[in-house]
Here is the input.
Amino acid sequence: MRMPDASNLVYVLNGPNLNLLGTREPEIYGHDTLDDIAGMLEERGRELGLEIDLRQSNHEGHLVDWIQEAASRGARAVIINAAGLTHTSVVLHDTIKGVKTPVIEVHLSNPQRRESFRHHSYIGSAARGTIVGFGALGYRLALDAAATF
Ligand code: DQA
Here is the structure.
């Protein structure tokens, strides 16, 4: 069976607690909800000829499965905000290293300006690139980058 062409498909994966965006520490993460971000990305995606598949989970294993799924489907790129898992997850590091699909790390805040336990990223050393500190705009910048792959 032929797989549908996913070369214009970008997965946008979001980790724990990002379902609470909009009400979660808005002074740090802003007032945009994940639905707002999805809408913004779909609009930009239409301009770029890219399709967006935005997902969120509070469970590490779902993120692993989705990265592997993106790779096996031949998706253009994965944009990931791994949230708190950024600072703990060897598993996500290994998953990203294990696929050929380019992965872009995004954070709404700039972790380097925050508590020291946020300074290390297990995602960053496996990702193609990282965008931090620009709030929801960072996702759009990442999508613009994915359009060049
Ligand atoms: C975050 C930064 C992480 O340190 C934090 O645990 C998050 C959100 C960000 O987008 O700024 O949950 O990934």
Q: What stands out?
A: The pocket of DQA is lined by residues 17, 81, 83-84, 86, 107-109, 111, 118 (CB under 6 Å). The chain has one domain: 9-146. Residues 23 and 31 are 7 Å apart (CA to CA).
